[in-house]
Structures are given as structure tokens and as C-alpha cells.
Amino acid sequence: MAKRPKCRHTDWVEFSSTPSWLQVSDPGRFDSLIQKLENPARQYPETVVCIGNGNKRELAGQIFPNRGSTRRTRSSLSSSESLAHSSTSSKGICDIFLGELQEKAIHPTFYADFRLDGTITGREGSKCHKTESSCNTWPLTYAGVHDEVLTRLIFPFSNMVCIFAEDVGGMDAALDKIEAWSTTEHATDIARFAWQTLPRVCIITHGPSTLDTQIQDEASSMRVKKMKYRGHFSTVKIMRLDAEGAPNVEHDFRLLLKTELEASRNMKQEYRVQFNGNHLSSLFSQAMKNLVTADKREFSFIGATRLYRPVPSSYSEQFSTLLHIQQKYGVAFDAIATLIASCLLLDAYPRACHGKLDLVNVMRMIGG
């Protein structure tokens, strides 16, 4: 029996069309990368999403070398050439790679390459891996499919989003995108009680700092301050990298990634929403299924972790109340987090499996 050729698909999300509807697919790439980790149960992946074209490919090719083979990659191609070839994917609008030497890292870095100009082709059979496809109600002429996938599927699983301004039409166009994404409904339940853990956005622009560019950057920063983006993002920043080819460009970008990922990691740890590799793989699969439902409901991370015992609709309100009490009375966050975790665990079992809850001590704990 002939040996099956190694899969070279790198698509995180695939799209195709039929005569009647659009089809979104999970090609299994994310899960396969998770399985490459040394111990997914004890590692906590962090994902950087880069949105753009030429400038993105050149800079990201220096920061994320050896991302693995793509459909058209040859061993002789350089890192930047390899990334450029990955953008010609026939069905994907977003590829994802595992950073170099990250298999053993406690916080392995994933790099996602999203192309706003990605095309949707006719449906083709995938022969080298398992692809889970789902039909949905999106019409063939739906122009917002890229934005919907970003806000409801890609962003919720991202720590950092880099938008390369010149690649998307300039700074104003990049800010327009942020505003458009921010006007949509909350994508997940996490946004309701821990918005600080949502993706950190950095809009990157190129060119030396002059009086004119300083005025433009200041005006853009003022516009950002007026935005209401906290349903999808925790912060939005603007960073100007020096002229192309300057020695400090790569260094500044690396420093930006390190700083923002560390901040994201700290917030996720503080709010107890840092998921390990196995959790992320399962949650992403469930989020994909949620994406194609007709009612377009937000994805519940809490509900997804309790697949066989659904979360009551009142949980979000109860959590918000507990957090409000914690802030009002200065109760230690660990005490509230322990209480919430205990409630979740106790409620996940039949009532006969645990004793009575001591309401007096609970009220004492929360300051009531």
C-alpha cells in the first residue's frame, strides 16, 4: 500500500461555495498543531493574528521563520517566500502556524495569517485530511463573510491582532475596520465579565517619524480614544515602525509582540480564562459549529465547557453581580474566583452528590 503523502494544508478556516449557499469548514489544522505540543494539557497557546498583505508578509517572515510546509512550499524557499506562497491558498482566508521551537514552551506562540482579500472558490474534496464542513444560511452574495468569521471565530481565540495599515488602505481604513467590527454584537460571554482579556489590537504603520506623520498619528490616537470597541477588544494601539529595512524595525516588532503577549497572558491568568491546548482545540471546534447556526448567538465559553449540563441563562448576570460585590467591598478576587469555581463544580453534579451549601459563610465571604 502506497504511503499517504504528508498533508501540506495550513488553513485555519476554509471557505467554499455551492450553487445555493456558502460553506465554512474546519480543516483540522488547529487541532493538528495542538497535538504537536509536548503536553497540551499543561501548555497554554497564544495566538497572534496578522491582517494585511505585502508589508505583513515581509515583516512576519522575519519574526516567524520556519512555520512549516504549505501547499506550495519547497525546501529551497526562504521564510518570507514561504509565507508569500501560503497566501495563495485556494480555499483558505486564514492560515495558522506554530512558531519555531515552540513545541515545549509553556506558552507556545501560534501565528495566524488572515487575508481580507481572500477569495471563495467552488467546493472541492479534501483527500489528505479530515475536514468538518457545515452548511449555513449565508447567501452566495454575502459580502460580510470575512468580517463575521473574524469577529465570531478568529478574534475570540486570539491574544493579539496586528493590522498593517498600508496593506488595508491606510490608517483611516484600518480604523474604519476597527469601528465596523466593534459595532457588532458581543461575540462571546467572556466579553461581558472580563473584557480586559479580549484580544489586544495594534495598528502598525510604516515610515519615518516627521512632523506630518506625528500630527496624523496623534489624530488617529484621538479617534481611537473615542471608539467603543470593548465588546471585541481590550486595547487598540497605534505603532509606527521606521522606514522599511531600518535595523530597528524587526527589533521593535519583536518587542511589541513580547510586551503585548505578556500583558494578555497576565490578564487571562488574573481572570481565570487561560485555556490549555486541549481546551482550546475542543472550544474552537464548538465555536465553529456555533458560527453556522441560523440565530447567530454569541459563543459561550462557559457553556461549551459544560457540554452535557447546560449553563442556566442567569449565570452571566450572577457572575457580574459577584464581581460587582467584590469591587464594592474590596473582597480579594481569589475568594470570589474560588466561590464561582465551586458553584460551577457543584452545579455540574447531581444534587445528591454534594452536601448543603453554607449560605452564612458564603455571604460572609462576599461581604453581604
Characterise this structure.
- With 368 residues, this protein is an alpha/beta fold.
- It folds into 2 domains: 281 residues, 3-Layer(aba) Sandwich (Rossmann fold), CATH 3.40.50; 55 residues.
- Helices cover 40% and strands 15% of the residues.
- The chain has 13 helices and 10 strands.
- Strands 1, 2, 3, 4, 5, 6, 7, 8, 9 and 10 form a 10-stranded mixed β-sheet that branches.
- Helix 1 runs antiparallel to helix 9 and helix 2 packs across helix 3.
- The longest helix has 23 residues.
- The radius of gyration is 22 Å and the shape is globular.
- The N and C termini lie far apart (70 Å).
- The N terminus is likely disordered.
Topology:
Blueprint: E1 11-17, E2 22-26, H1 29-35, E3 46-51, H2 54-63, H3 79-86, E4 92-98, E5 109-114, E6 121-122, E7 132-135, H4 145-154, E8 160-164, H5 171-182, H6 190-193, E9 200-206, H7 211-225, E10 235-241, H8 248-270, H9 277-291, H10 301-304, H11 315-329, H12 333-347, H13 359-366
Parallel strand pairs: 1-6, 3-5, 3-8, 8-9, 9-10
Antiparallel strand pairs: 1-2, 1-4, 2-7, 4-5
Helix pairs in contact: 1-9, 2-3
Task: Offer a concise description of the structure.
This protein is an alpha/beta fold and 368 residues long. It has helices spanning 29-35, 54-63, 79-86, 145-154, 171-182, 190-193, 211-225, 248-270, 277-291, 301-304, 315-329, 333-347, 359-366; strands at residues 11-17, 22-26, 46-51, 92-98, 109-114, 121-122, 132-135, 160-164, 200-206, 235-241.
Please give the share of residues in helix: 25-40%
Supply Rg.
22 Å
Proportion of residues in β-strands: 15-25%
Question: What coarse outline follows from CA principal-axis ratios?
Answer: globular
Sheet having the most strands: 10 strands, mixed
In the CATH hierarchy, what is the class of the largest domain? Alpha Beta
In CATH, the homologous superfamily of the largest domain goes by the name P-loop containing nucleotide triphosphate hydrolases
Number of strand segments: 10
Average pLDDT for all residues: 76
Number of alpha- plus pi-helical segments: 13
Number of domains: 2
